[in-house]
Amino acid sequence: MAEPRDTVVLAYSGGLDTSCILVWLKEQGYTVIAFLANIGQTEDFDAAQKKALALGAKKLSSIAALLPSPQVYIQDVCREFVEDFIWPAVHANALYEDRYMLGSALARPCIARHLVLIAQEEGARYIAHGATGKGNDQVRFELGCYALCPSIKVIAPWRMPEFYQRFPGRRELMEYAQKHGIPVPVTPKAPWSMDENLMHISYEAGILENPKNRAPLDLYTKTCNPTTSPDVPDELEIEFEKGVPVKVTNTRNGVTHRSALELFVYLNDIASKHGVGRVDIVENRFVGMKSRGIYETPAGTILYHAHLDIEAFTMDREVRKIKQGLSLKFSELVYNGFWYSPECEFLKHCIARSQQAVAGTVHVSVFKGQVYILGRESPHSLYNEELVSMDVQGDYEPADATGFININALRLKEYHRLQSKVSTKQDE
């Protein structure tokens, strides 16, 4: 055992890596405070408590009821995750590289916020995490922690030669776990890594690293197989105010939810039942390599389609063009770990301002892996039924379109006239 050192707050998941890291940090002489965030993952927190005790934890507590010098914090941050992190992403219609809904990227700054709070409460100088040296999460955790507490120091074992040379593979970690009595539910039946929160679950590594390999049917845990999902759709009315969902009603059975967390959980249940939210992609990591990831984002997929529809219905065309550009940059910043950057704060403010009139109700059908828009209504609609009607002239003079077309055609005529001259000279 090394000489006693300072206190470190570890982002703890209860899995193989962070369980071994916890023990390894103690071997290095650190006083370890583990923080396990309940961010909506499927987790047996009683089992996590027993494991923490088995690893030497003396006490457990929540932020709401602090005990003196707790060794492990377990805190439910689900509501905060929805309201402070998922809702801004819904505002933005956030997608990274057109497909990834940022489930992990949104969770990391939420967890980082509480790592810093605990470190400040406990007087800890260090924060540690189990993110690998090749992934995005190391960047997300650390940029978040440094932004919120510039004086904090980060221990990243998977970037430290004395750690990764000692544990070059899973076999060595398993042997270490066995030696120290760490119970870890890792078996050859699930040869990939998973990360789950309320918004999504991701799968990567192992057999999935070959992008040609088809994902096994038993991989998916958050959604049903669309081909065997119910043969009757669920139809929902989703009500928005200022771009945020405030009410969901199932028109088949009248079930209604209004609070942010309950609403989101219910949409997860409906989407999961119908196999909605699956995507298998190759993406560009911030650190410079391409990676293959498989994601299930049930509720997020429903809200993406519903919000996109009500936004198009209520937002001015030119404002929306600008907002789309902002959303693209917002998604990139979130993916890369810059949630707490000044530029991301600025974008969140601008995007929120664009949502002031995004209100109304969207009618959707959820069925066999798809979300279908059935209709929409809004007190702020910019849709003029009389103006657009083919049966009523309304306040529109069709003859005016002739000048409109002629003016827009002028540029095209000139371009092709000059191109013809250039082609003729080249042929001479």
From TrEMBL:
Pathway: Nitrogen metabolism; urea cycle; (N(omega)-L-arginino)succinate from L-aspartate and L-citrulline: step 1/1; Amino-acid biosynthesis; L-arginine biosynthesis; L-arginine from L-ornithine and carbamoyl phosphate: step 2/3. This is Argininosuccinate synthase. GO terms for biological process: L-arginine biosynthetic process; urea cycle. Pfam families: Arginosuc_syn_C, Arginosuc_synth. Its EC number is 6.3.4.5. It comes from the Eukaryota. HAMAP family: Arg_succ_synth_type1. Residues 8-183 form the Arginosuccinate synthase-like N-terminal domain. GO terms for cellular component: cytosol. It is found in: Cytoplasm, Cytosol. Signal peptide: none annotated. CDD domains: ASS (cd01999). It catalyses: L-citrulline + L-aspartate + ATP = 2-(N(omega)-L-arginino)succinate + AMP + diphosphate + H(+). Residues 192-415 form the Arginosuccinate synthase C-terminal domain. One of its GO terms (molecular function) is ATP binding. Its main location: cytoplasm. It comes from Gallus gallus (Chicken). Keywords: Amino-acid biosynthesis, Arginine biosynthesis, ATP-binding, Cytoplasm, Ligase, Nucleotide-binding, Phosphoprotein, Urea cycle. It is an enzyme of class 6 (ligase).
